[in-house]
Each structure stands twice: as structure tokens, then as C-alpha cells.
């Protein structure tokens, strides 16, 4: 019997915060701390998972744990990330609902690890197979590549994701992964040129210098010493616990698994090296005769090496660093760059080069992992994105990150409420409106198209004249001063308030997670994100295989004078697309929290956790979940858990589960306002009611345990007593035996008179004879009585019973004999044991038939789907050609391979493969017969579900594409040749050039597949197969007769085709031996 478990069993603290009583911020934190101290790092808020980073390995992610949570109800076991992953996967697989898993939290909270755990769990529980395993491995190995190029060491996290990632994993109808698509958001490219104290640049720079071979570094013109490069911070160059050299090997291996070619990996490393070289370029001031300041490069060695890596001319790039060309309509103006502007241009190029390389990597990974099938897929999205950020110095990056989190919070509340409302409506429970803070007003303050902060920032960036961060702040003070969630020094002063915490160059926004102070310095430049056109054109002129793809705007033929979209505009559009994507899926949430800033295990910082809980909106989430009914459970598990509380439902309830729950709640006298009955669940309003039930259950379980102990102890004592009683009887019997023997010995030795002894002996013998006589008489008497009673029935039924017994014995002997003589399991084995009796003729034949059918079924069950398809084709070939074409017997042993050319893997035919949209069912080389001379020319023959394609064998150029709907029939001879004619319907578009006369070594397979495709298509007629030694073929306007004759021995063993006249082609076929 399966043991039913529940989230409420052996609970440390409260496993679901919805059940926390009383609900206060202090009790919330105390519950988290209590569970954290007992290594319970996961806690629920309804269907939301709170995850605390333990900063150490815990034995809760083993294969046994995966099996434990597999196919289990969400609330059946203690809280775990596997429970959420399993719930999402089963909803996707069984209910055909697209899913998304939103993982949020600040840096160091464990978001990346959480996303890895979700993906590894899904990979473990979904299907197996060579192709499926390859897809799973590619999806999992995309993580190390993106982490190397997009993660960095920060003061909060040694492996912090510096970009947002959203991955759509696509599944087929069975729940097996087919591929995926990755979207990246807002790479922190400013890190490339400058890192805060105690932090590093992106991992790949350190991994390359530490793990690459000396030969590779020599080719890239690099040295291992980190101090040689200005873009690499030295105070945190090495990180304890991070092996950069080993990680570099892991990244290269992952890139190979994902599908990167060797030359692509080399190109990527060359661009990484170029970024490092770019950081070493330094400038010096130089005055011109006209009084204008300009800049010159101090040491051109790094510039030279960088140009060699990128394949560009040194003079072109040197000029791009010194001059800037501005184009307006028909005019071009060239201005010199001073030192500050040159450094700006250098850093802008480095940031753009690296960020575009990262975007290219994501695109390249998507090409490898995308699903190949074009049918509709089920989708599970995993979002790993920055959490809300509040630093001492908050700039443009924090502003748009927090904007994204505002949108996520908005969709979180909306989807949570919608989910609650849908469940209430589904269960027939009255929905009551829930009061909650709607942060739409904050989102509107930021994203409104007319007077939102982003719109005003774009307007300020695009307007002519002098544009500075101060003019942008003045614009905000003018338009947003009266907004309740916006504060600045001027807006505060206008209300006669004195707030010294607000500097003059800052503004403050009241986010849902709290107030954040933003410094406007850099807002305009970071939003513009300008790269001078001269640098783009210099990059486009490079001979590097990858660099041209990264800077398409540098093409002189495609000069676009429009300003590129701003960073804020692009991010706003990306967030809008992401929100639309998430709203189309069923959401699942993981809220990650870091317990301390020291990355130490067993340390719980209450104030830090409280801060994160506030800006993650966890208390708000609990209140929303508790606003209606705090707990709900299906009737079956509810009755199973609490049935011992009522005598009417214990131990077994025979009616419907809902009726049992109603009886139970009535008997317990729970107030009616504390619960409601849904269609399939009971809804409990207050956690106190649930804890009352749990307390009663606990007391009842103790009483039951006492009863079981009492019964067991009674049984044990009773068994012991019976054993003692039995032992006493045995001991007493042995003692009596011993006493009799002792008495007899005493009698032998005592002086007893002889007459007395004889008398005693006679008496004993007489008693024994009497006992034997009584026993014998009783036995005979009982026998007589039984026989007299039985005789009445025996005479009437004896014959029938004897006959039935005999038949049963014969049948038993027959079946046992048949069991030992059964033939082999081969379906072609026709042997069968001889029947022993003639009356078993029918049974013997029927058993032989049943055994053969069963044997065939067992044989068929061993087939894979591919093997079944091959045998079905072989069976169809037999029906078409057996006893009709002499070539057929030789084709029986040849397997139908289909793709004889491996056209998808052959780079020679890559262009042809991409031109054919559909799956290729057969690819072979055939000879196309020329009517003029009867000679053949080689052609590639491709067959899909809708078309027949002929292409040139050498060049792969498409020669003909014939829809199968245009085929009228296929003609072939009765002999051993491989000639066949594809006859086209008159008046069809393909019939303009006439029919096709072809020759192939795989004629049987080609015609069988053509006939099979035609018979399976509902919108087409069956393809006619004409087998005759003489048939007509239409060549353009003329009809030509193709005649097959037996060749003489002097012609050899080859088939030859000759033109006899304008109307006759004669095919000579050697006589078959």
C-alpha cells in the first residue's frame, strides 16, 4: 500500500508562508531563519518558491531526490525547487500548457544555479534516446559558454550574471526536448572598460590568459600576465574557488558540443584578444596650427597587433581614432578629436565590439539548439534576470534594471490574481475583489510615451543644441514634479520641504520595493550609446571573417543618416516583447534570497533578508494569497488525511470523497464561514482552522498509536502464555513417561509375589485389547455409515465424474507435453508437435494458430518505429513486384536506406539541402536517359512528401522540381533492369518538358516509396504502377516507345539502351541466370 505524505508532515517551521499565523514581517523572517538553520532552504508562498542561498553543497539534488519528486503532487513533499520544476513540466506535457519559470533576486542570491537546477531536473525526467540526449546536452552546455562571456566576479557574487537571460525550451507532444531559443537582455558592457574596486572583468578574459596554450597565446599576440592589460583589474584578478584554466577547457569543450566550428572558436578568441589590445591604446595631446587640440596614439605597437588580429589597415583605424566625420544631407564635416574624445571613442569601440560579439554568440547558439521540426511545439521558458538593485551610487543601468523589475512585479501580481480568480471560478467559489498595491502608476511614470522618464530622456538625446544630464534633470523637474512617486531637490523645494538627502544632481523614485536615489550623471551618454561612424566603417573594412557581421552599419553602400535607436528605447521594446511572451504562458516563480553578504554558510542576516523580502514583494504576495482562502485541497487527499477524526469516515468511507469531507467537517463542528466547498476542492479560509485539524489529527494519531501498542502487547503476552502452556504440557508428559519407567524399574527390583505380578500383567494386556477392539469397531461402524450415505450419490454421478477426471488428466498431460515441445519463437518456423488424440484436432489447430499470432506479436513488439516503417515498405514492395518483376527477388535482402548520399551532412550539397524545405525521404544518384542517343547522365534524385527533385550531381544545381500531384503513373519492365519512367499528367505545369526516363540501382525502393506516399496522401489519387516490357514515354511533343528485349551473351552482363529510330528506344537486358 502506498504511503500518502503531505507538506504538513514533519514540518520545520511552516513550509508554506500562506499558513503562517500570525502573519507579520517578524514572524515571516523568523520562519525563514528557523528553516534555514535546519538546512531547509526552500519555502513556499502558495505555488511560489522562496530559495535561500546556502553557500555550500547540500545532499538534496541527487538522482534519488529527482525520482522522489518525479510525478508527485506539488504539496505532497517538503518544499523543493524540483517540486516546482516537476509541476511545470507535467502541466506542459499532460495539459498542453506552455510554461514559464521566472527566477528573480539580487546578485549572489543563486538565480543562475536555480536555472541550472530546473534545466537539469527537466533533462533528467524527460525521455531518453540518442537524438534527445544530444539536444539535452546542447541545451545544458550552452550555459558554460554564456557564463564565460556574460558573467563576472562582483563584490556580491563570484559568478554574477551581468546580463538577463530568457530561454525557451521547446518540447514535442511526448515531452521530449527538441531545441531552444535564448534571448539576452542588457549586457553590462561598461564592465569591459571599467570595473568597480574588488570586481573583475568578464570571466573569458582571465580564462583565456590562464588556460590557453602558449601556441594559442602566441597566435593571439597575448601574454599571460594580467598586469599587461589596462582593461583587467588587478586587485581581484584571481578568485579563490575559481580555476580559470580548467574553466577555459570546459568552455572550449562546451562550444564544440553546442556546434561551434574550430575556425569560429578561433575568430571569437581573436576578437576577445582585440578587446584586450584595444584597452592598451593610449593617446597624447597635440596642438595644431589653427589652435585646435587633437590627439595622437602614444605607442602604435598594440594598435598594429590589434589590426593584424582584425585584418584591417592600421592607418584607417588610426585616423578613426583621431577624426570624426559628421554627415548631414549632402554635406560632410570632419573634426579632430581631443584626448578625452579619443579615449571615449576607444572605450565605445571596445564596449560595442564585445557586446556585439556576445549577441552573435547567442545567435550562433540559437542556430545550433533551435528545433528542426516546423510543427507546433510546447514551450517552457526560463527567465534568469537581475533582481531589484539599490546601491549607494545608482545610475542608468540600475534605472532600467529596476524598470524591468517593476514590469515583472506588475505581471506577477496580475498573473497571481488571475490564477486565483480562475481557480475560484473553476471551483464555483464566489470571487471577492482583493485590495493590493498596483504599481502600474510607477511603470507609467517610467514608460509613458508622452511624459514618461524614458520618453523625455530620448527626446533630450535627440533634440539639437546643448544637451547635458543637467538639462535632462531640469526637464524631469518641469514635467514630473507633481507625480506622487517622483522626488527631486527642486520638486521638494517647490513644496517648501527641506530634504538634504537629495543632492542637486539626483532624483528619487518611490518603487514598489522602496525609494531609490538615481544620479543623473551619465544618463544621456549611456542612453545615446554612440559609436562614431568612422569606427564602424573602419571595422567593416576589416578582412576578419566575423567582424563584418558585427558592424553592418559600416557598409558605405548602406549609409543611414538616421540616428540609431537609443539604449532606453531598445530595452523598453525588449521588455515589452518579454512581457507579452510571459503573459502567453502559465507562470511559475522562484524568488532567490541571499542570507548574508559574506558568502558564508550558516549565517542569516535578518536585516539583509528583510530588505530583499520587501523589494521582492513577498509579504504582498502572501497577503494576496490569503485575501480569499489561505488553503485549498482536493477532496480525496483531504479525506485520506483527516478521516480518522470522525467515526463515520474511519477506517473506510464508501461514498464519494466530497460527501465524506462534508460529514467530517459537520462532525468536527467547524464554523461554516471558515470553509467553502468547491467542485473538486475544499477551501479553508483561515490557517487557524487548518492547524486545528492538524492538532486533532496529531492527537488522534497518538491515540491510534497507543491502541496499536496495546493490541500488539496483548498479542505478544498471549503468544508467550500459549508457548509456556504448550511447554508445560510437553514437560509434564515427559515427566510422566519418566515416572512410569522409574516405577517399572522399581517393580523389577522390589520383591513382589509372582502371582500378583502375573495378575497385574494379565489385567494390563486385557485393557490394551479392549481399547484396540473399541477403536476397530468404531472405525468399521463409521465407515459403514459413510458408505451407506455416499452410495446414494455415487451410483448416479460416478461415471460422469470418472469421465471428467479422465479427460482432465488427458488434457493436463497434453498441455504439459505441449509446453515442453513448443517450437522456436521464429515466425517462419512452421513445425508443431503432433497431436496425441484425434478428439483434440480442433483444439490442436486453434492453439497452433494462437501461438503463431502471439509469436508474431512478440516479434513485432521488438521493432522500433523506424524498423516498422522499413518492413511496411518491404511488404508494399512485395505486393507491387512479387512474381511481376524479375529484379524483385534480389532486392529482398537489400535494406531500404532512403538517404544514400547523407545529403544533410555533405557540405557539397548544403545549398541544395537548404533549397529543399521538406524532409528528404530518399536521396540517390540516378541516370537520366537521353532520347537522342539512349545514353544516361548522372542526376541527384531527391524524394520528399510533396515533390520529386532532380539536380546536377557535380554542382548540386536544381534541374527539375516535380510536385507528386503532377505524376500520373510510373512504368517499368518485368525484367532485371533498373529503368523506369515518371509519366506526368497532361496539362500540368511540369509536363511542358515531357516525361522522365530514368535508371537506378534502387528501382524497387524508389517506386515503392512513390506509391506509398501517394497512397497515404488524402488529397491525391493513388499512383498507378505499370509493369510491362513495352510502354510509351512522352518527350516534349513526341511519344517514344521503350521496348525491353533479352540480350545475347555476346553483349555481356550490362544493360544497354540504343535508339533505333525517332519513335523507338530499345533496352537490351541480359538473361538472368
UniProtKB/TrEMBL annotation:
CDD domains: MYSc_Myo1. GO terms for biological process: actin filament organization; actin filament-based movement; endocytosis. One of its GO terms (molecular function) is ATP binding. Residues 885-1071 form the TH1 domain. It comes from the Eukaryota. It is found in: Cytoplasm, Cell cortex. Its main location: cytoplasm. SUPFAM superfamilies: P-loop containing nucleoside triphosphate hydrolases. InterPro entries: IQ_motif_EF-hand-BS (IPR000048), Kinesin_motor_dom_sf (IPR036961), Myosin_head_motor_dom-like (IPR001609), Myosin_TH1 (IPR010926), MYSc_Myo1 (IPR036072), P-loop_NTPase (IPR027417). ATP binds at residues 105-112. Residues 575-597 are annotated as: Actin-binding. Keywords: Actin-binding, ATP-binding, Calmodulin-binding, Motor protein, Myosin, Nucleotide-binding, Phosphoprotein, Repeat. It holds the Pfam family Myosin_head. GO terms for cellular component: brush border; cell cortex; microvillus; myosin complex; plasma membrane. Residues 12-698 form the Myosin motor domain. Belongs to the TRAFAC class myosin-kinesin ATPase superfamily. Myosin family. This is Myosin IB. The lineage of its organism: Eukaryota, Metazoa, Chordata, Craniata, Vertebrata.
Amino acid at each position: 500500500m502506498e504511503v500518502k505524505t503531505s507538506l504538513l508532515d514533519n514540518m520545520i517551521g511552516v513550509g508554506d508562508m500562506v499558513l503562517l499565523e500570525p502573519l507579520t514581517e517578524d514572524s515571516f523572517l523568523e520562519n525563514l531563519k528557523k528553516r534555514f538553520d535546519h538546512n531547509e532552504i526552500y519555502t513556499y508562498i502558495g505555488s511560489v518558491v522562496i530559495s535561500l542561498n546556502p553557500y555550500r553543497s547540500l545532499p538534496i539534488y541527487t538522482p534519488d531526490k529527482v525520482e522522489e519528486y518525479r510525478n508527485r503532487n506539488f504539496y505532497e513533499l517538503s518544499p523543493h525547487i524540483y517540486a516546482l520544476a516537476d509541476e511545470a513540466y507535467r502541466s506542459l506535457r499532460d495539459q498542453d500548457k506552455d510554461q514559464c519559470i521566472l527566477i528573480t533576486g539580487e546578485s549572489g542570491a543563486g538565480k543562475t544555479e536555480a536555472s541550472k537546477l530546473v534545466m537539469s531536473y527537466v533533462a533528467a525526467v524527460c525521455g531518453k534516446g540518442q537524438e534527445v540526449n544530444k539536444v539535452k546536452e546542447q541545451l545544458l552546455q550552452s550555459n558554460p559558454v554564456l557564463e564565460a562571456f556574460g558573467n563576472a566576479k562582483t563584490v556580491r557574487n563570484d559568478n554574477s550574471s551581468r546580463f538577463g537571460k530568457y530561454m525557451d525550451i521547446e518540447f514535442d507532444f511526448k515531452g521530449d526536448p527538441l531545441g531552444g531559443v535564448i534571448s539576452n537582455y542588457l549586457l553590462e558592457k561598461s564592465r569591459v572598460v571599467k570595473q568597480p574596486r574588488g570586481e573583475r572583468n568578464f570571466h573569458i578574459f582571465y580564462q583565456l590568459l590562464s588556460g590557453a596554450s602558449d601556441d594559442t597565446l602566441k597566435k593571439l599576440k597575448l601574454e599571460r600576465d594580467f598586469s599587461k592589460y589596462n582593461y583587467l583589474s588587478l586587485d581581484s584578478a584571481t578568485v579563490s574557488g575559481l580555476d580559470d584554466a580548467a574553466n577555459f577547457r570546459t568552455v572550449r569543450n562546451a562550444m564544440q558540443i553546442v556546434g561551434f566550428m574550430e575556425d569560429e572558436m578561433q575568430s571569437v578568441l581573436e576578437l576577445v584578444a582585440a578587446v584586450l589590445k584595444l584597452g592598451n591604446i593610449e593617446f597624447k595631446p597635440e596642438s595644431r596650427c589653427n589652435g585646435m587640440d587633437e590627439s595622437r596614439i602614444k605607442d602604435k605597437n598594440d594598435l598594429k597587433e590589434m589590426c593584424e588580429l582584425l585584418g584591417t589597415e592600421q592607418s584607417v583605424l588610426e585616423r578613426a581614432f583621431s577624426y570624426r566625420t559628421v554627415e548631414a544631407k549632402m554635406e560632410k564635416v570632419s573634426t579632430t578629436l581631443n584626448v578625452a574624445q579619443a579615449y571615449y571613442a576607444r572605450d565605445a569601440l571596445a564596449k560595442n565590439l564585445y557586446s556585439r560579439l556576445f549577441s552573435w554568440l547567442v545567435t550562433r547558439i540559437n542556430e545550433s539548439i533551435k528545433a528542426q521540426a516546423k510543427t507546433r511545439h510546447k514551450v517552457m521558458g526560463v527567465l534568469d534576470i537581475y533582481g531589484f538593485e539599490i546601491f549607494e551610487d545608482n545610475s542608468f543601468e540600475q534605472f532600467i534594471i529596476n524598470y524591468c523589475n517593476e514590469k515583472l512585479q506588475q505581471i506577477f501580481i496580475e498573473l497571481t490574481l488571475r490564477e486565483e480568480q480562475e481557480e475560484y471560478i473553476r471551483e464555483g467559489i464566489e470571487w471577492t475583489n482583493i485590495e493590493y498595491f498596483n504599481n502600474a502608476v510607477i511603470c507609467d511614470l517610467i514608460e509613458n510615451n508622452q511624459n514618461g522618464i524614458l520618453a523625455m530622456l530620448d527626446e533630450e538625446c535627440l533634440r539639437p543644441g546643448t544637451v547635458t544630464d543637467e538639462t535632462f534633470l531640469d526637464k524631469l523637474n518641469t514635467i514630473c514634479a507633481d507625480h506622487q512617486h517622483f522626488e527631486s531637490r527642486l520638486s521638494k523645494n517647490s513644496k517648501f520641504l527641506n530634504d538634504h538627502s537629495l543632492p542637486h544632481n539626483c532624483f528619487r523614485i518611490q518603487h514598489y520595493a522602496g525609494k531609490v536615489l538615481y544620479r543623473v550623471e551619465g544618463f544621456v551618454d549611456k542612453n545615446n550609446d554612440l559609436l562614431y561612424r568612422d569606427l564602424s566603417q573602419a571595422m567593416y573594412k576589416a578582412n576578419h571573417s566575423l567582424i563584418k557581421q558585427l558592424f553592418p552599419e559600416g557598409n558605405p553602400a548602406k549609409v543611414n543618416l538616421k540616428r540609431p535607436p537609443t539604449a532606453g528605447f531598445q530595452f523598453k521594446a525588449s521588455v515589452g516583447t518579454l512581457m507579452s511572451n510571459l503573459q502567453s504562458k502559465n507562470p511559475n516563480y522562484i524568488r532567490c534570497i541571499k542570507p548574508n553578504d559574506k558568502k558564508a554558510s550558516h549565517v542569516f542576516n535578518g536585516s539583509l533578508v528583510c530588505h530583499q523580502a520587501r523589494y521582492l514583494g513577498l509579504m504582498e504576495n502572501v497577503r494576496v494569497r490569503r485575501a480569499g482562502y489561505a488553503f485549498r485541497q482536493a477532496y480525496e487527499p483531504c479525506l485520506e488525511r483527516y478521516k480518522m477524526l470522525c467515526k463515520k469516515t474511519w477506517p473506510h468511507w464508501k461514498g464519494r470523497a466530497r460527501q465524506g469531507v462534508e460529514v467530517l467537517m459537520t462532525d468536527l463542528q467547524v464554523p461554516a464561514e471558515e470553509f467553502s466547498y468547491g467542485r473538486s476542492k475544499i477551501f479553508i479560509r483561515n490557517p487557524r482552522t487548518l492547524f486545528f485539524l492538524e492538532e486533532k489529527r496529531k492527537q488522534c494519531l497518538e491515540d491510534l498509536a497507543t491502541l496499536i501498542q496495546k493490541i500488539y502487547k496483548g498479542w505478544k503476552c498471549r503468544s508467550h502464555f500459549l508457548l509456556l502452556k504448550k511447554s508445560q504440557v510437553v514437560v509434564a508428559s515427559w515427566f510422566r513417561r519418566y515416572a512410569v519407567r522409574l516405577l517399572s524399574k522399581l517393580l523389577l527390583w522390589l520383591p513382589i509375589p509372582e502371582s500378583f505380578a502375573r495378575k497385574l500383567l494379565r489385567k494390563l494386556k486385557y485393557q490394551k485389547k479392549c481399547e484396540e477392539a473399541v477403536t476397530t469397531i468404531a472405525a468399521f461402524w463409521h465407515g459403514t455409515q459413510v458408505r451407506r450415505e455416499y452410495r446414494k450419490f455415487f451410483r448416479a454421478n460416478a461415471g460422469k465424474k470418472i469421465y471428467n477426471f479422465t479427460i482432465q488428466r488427458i488434457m493436463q498431460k497434453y498441455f504439459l507435453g505441449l509446453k515442453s515441445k513448443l517450437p522456436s519463437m521464429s515466425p517462419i518456423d512452421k513445425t508443431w508437435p503432433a497431436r496425441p488424440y484425434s478428439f483434440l484436432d480442433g483444439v490442436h489447430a486453434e492453439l497452433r494458430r494462437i501461438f503463431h499470432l502471439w509469436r508474431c506479436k512478440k516479434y513485432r513488439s521488438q521493432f522500433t518505429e523506424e524498423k516498422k516503417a522499413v518492413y511496411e515498405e518491404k511488404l508494399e514492395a512485395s505486393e507491387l513486384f512479387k512474381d511481376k518483376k524479375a529484379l524483385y527477388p534480389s532486392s529482398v535482402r537489400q535494406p531500404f536506406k532512403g538517404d544514400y548520399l547523407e545529403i544533410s551532412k555533405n557540405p557539397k550539397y548544403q545549398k541544395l539541402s537548404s533549397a529543399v524545405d521538406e524532409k528528404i525521404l530518399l536521396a540517390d544518384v540516378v541516370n537520366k536517359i537521353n532520347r537522342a542517343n539512349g545514353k544516361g547522365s548522372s542526376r541527384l534524385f531527391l524524394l520528399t512528401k510533396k515533390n520529386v527533385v532532380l539536380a546536377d550531381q557535380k554542382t548540386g544545381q536544381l534541374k527539375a522540381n516535380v510536385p507528386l500531384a503532377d505524376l500520373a503513373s510510373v512504368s517499368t519492365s518485368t525484367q532485371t533492369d533498373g529503368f523506369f519512367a515518371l509519366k506526368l499528367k497532361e496539362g500540368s505545369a511540369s509536363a511542358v518538358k515531357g516525361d522522365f526516363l530514368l535508371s537506378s540501382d534502387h528501382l524497387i525502393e524508389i517506386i515503392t516509396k512513390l506509391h506509398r506516399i501517394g497512397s497515404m496522401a488524402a488529397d491525391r489519387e493513388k499512383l498507378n504502377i505499370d509493369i510491362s516490357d513495352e510502354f510509351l514515354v512522352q518527350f516534349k511533343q513526341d511519344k517514344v516507345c521503350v521496348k525491353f528485349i533479352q540480350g545475347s551473351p555476346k553483349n555481356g552482363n550490362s544493360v544497354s539502351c540504343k535508339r533505333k529510330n525517332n519513335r523507338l528506344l530499345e533496352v537490351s537486358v541480359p538473361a538472368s541466370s
